[in-house]
Amino acid sequence: MSPDTLTLLFAIFLCLSVLLKFWLASRQIQHVRTHRNQVPETFSDVVSVSAHQKAADYTVAKTRFSLLTTAFGSMTLLAWTLLGGLDAFNGWLQETRLLNGGPMAYQLSLILGFMLLSSLVEWPFEIYSTFQIEQKFGFNRMTWRLWLADTCKNLIVSALLGLPLLALVLWLMGQAGSGWWLWAWGSWAAFSMLMLLIYPMFIAPWFNRFEPLKDESLKARVESLMQRCGFSSQGLFVMDGSKRSAHANAYFTGFGAAKRVVFFDTLLKKLQPEEIEAVLAHELGHFKCRHTLQRLLAALGLSGLALALLGWLHGTTWFYQGLGVQPSLNAPNDALALVLFMLTIPVLNDFIAPLFAWVSRKHEFEADAFASQQASAKALSMALIRLYEDNAATLTPDPLYTRFYSSHPPAIERIAALHQLAHHQA
């Protein structure tokens, strides 16, 4: 492939991606605003008009903000690639004589510098989302001090964990021959499995406080459910999610000795015990239906394909030149290839996202069906309605937007399916 051909293909895919996102977002905004004043009949007895309107306004605000981030992100991508930003940054690093520190110092500096600059560009959008949009709709509990602490902690964790992994991958790219990507994939898989062990035990507690579940009656209910489902964990914990957000959630994390059940404190305050049990049964359904394992294997498989593709591209001159970068003549290009790949691969992901969203929605229906067998479909239905209302999730999303982006089924479809399951239980 010639550099000009790659430039043209990249520009076409980027334009199509932006146009698609803008079109779908515009549909979402129009559809939600059209149905803003009328609660769907399914929810008319349990969701107030004011709550429905708040959800509509919240959805519109977030979707409009996504248009801004999409436009800015596309311009930033062009600036890094075809407009020569990455090429200029790479040249500047070489002129600063970082090469005297050795190839590894130069390559790590290139990747870390790129990631730091990218973060600096993204932070204003993160701040606006947290302290303007979330604040306006009553969800933000984050303080500036906590935001700064989280940012610093994230940088430290990323450096401690990411630097050794990056150094290993770069070393493999330079020393392991044409099959380097297979070794790199094995290293990434091992790292991912290691993170499942160390994250819940050592990293998560650095950001949040985790306390054992103290409600004995709820604890007995949960343990009984887990016993019925043949599931064991190393503990039931309550996380202080309320110090950052009013949104509620529950999740499983880790495996083996690190496997645990975590409830947000906001969830325990909003739901009744039978509803909490039903939500937990849904999460257990993901494990029992092997959704968690399937997603892990899919992620590892896709990462392997991506590394294989990079293994082919990074040895070609047109890959660099077609994306606005001149490969180095007196330095290794492995870090340059990694950065270019990280920049451009998301453009392709936009076109396969509907497939993953469809699989995820299918899994949600299956987990709901499992939950209805182990707990109460009616209780799960009521829990979801409460969470939709409390989290200001719109009950009237655009159907096409949902098909492209939503990892969960629309509220109307999901509740209708649960009503059928509840009818069978009766």
Quick synopsis:
By secondary structure, the protein is mostly helical. It contains 15 helices and 4 strands. A 4-stranded mixed β-sheet has the order 1-2-4-3, sandwiched between helices.
Explain this structure.
With 426 residues, the protein is mainly alpha-helical. The chain has helices spanning 3-34, 49-80, 85-95, 103-136, 144-175, 180-207, 216-229, 265-270, 273-288, 291-313, 317-321, 334-374, 377-390, 399-405, 411-425, and strands at 210-212, 236-239, 250-253, 260-264. It has a four-stranded mixed sheet, with helices on both faces. The longest helix has 41 residues, at 334-374.
Which features characterize this protein?
15 helices, single chain, mainly alpha, 4 strands, 426 residues, 73% helix, 4-stranded mixed beta sheet, globular
